[in-house]
Amino acid sequence: MHVAIHILIWTAAVESVFALALTLAPQLRSGGSHLSHALARAPLLDVVVAILTWIPWVVGIAVGASLGVVGAIGGQAIAFAIWVIVHELTHRRARRGPRIVKVLNRIVGRAPNHLALWVSLLALPGFWIIRFAQILIYPLLRGLLGFPRYKHGEWVNVSRHKFHGLVGHDLIWCLYCDWMTGVYALGGEMLRTVESFWCPIRFYDGKKCENCRIDFPDIDGGWVPASGTMVEVVSTLETMYGAGRREWYGHPARLTISAKQESGRAHNGLVQE
Questions:
Q1: pTM of the predicted model, to two decimals?
Q2: DSSP E strand boundaries for 100-166
Q3: Phi/psi of residue 250, each to 5°?
Q4: Contact status, residue 67 vs residue 1, Cβ threshold 8 Å
Q5: Mind listing the pLDDT tens digit for each residue in 85-131?
Q6: Cα Rg for the chain, rounded, in angstroms?
Q7: Bond preceding residue 225 cis, omega within 30 of 0
């Protein structure tokens, strides 16, 4: 128990100082805005989120086993509360104004709203698993199969700290959602490429097709019907990938190429005429 308390204190102190440094970074005279921008996008954002989330857990396990993890999580909770209080005290006008937390507390109740927010943290390890897959596994597929390269910073970034009036409690949870949304979206983009490359066949379940077409547009934009044949599947693969393209069928790169080809054909037609 003694070890857990030490880890709790150290975690609370280190995380509080780190969070304060992140908050003050944009105000640095020399290069502050550039540093803040870099820290808000992958890959540096991955380091920032890791320090605020799972790195203390690993340290806790290494130092104090299961009690160490409990101490680390407790320290994180304390640092969270300290940052929220300090940030709201330094933005009193915004704190007294319209707030997300105020209206949702009124709609669903204060206790359910706050408890649900903490419950949402249980998804954090799952999102980190997805993020690790994006960083460690997808590049292997790209090297082996020529899948498209993605600039992770265009997906995994945060920017809601720039929204005027979003402070303290609201800001920290919105940044959490900001990060999760980018991780989820990049994962979906990569999975579209994987799915259309290996399994371009519509599902038999029509409701599943309807539900999934938002995240997998190729369901209605090129996948072979469930009533089709393997001849059609092979033909689709040869048509879509035979020329060296590896993006999912509706990917902007394919659409851009198609548009250029159509423009070229139109231009050639005008020249011939």
A1: 0.89
A2: none
A3: -95, 15
A4: yes
A5: 999 999 999 999 999 999 999 999 999 999 999 999 999 999 999 99
A6: 24
A7: no
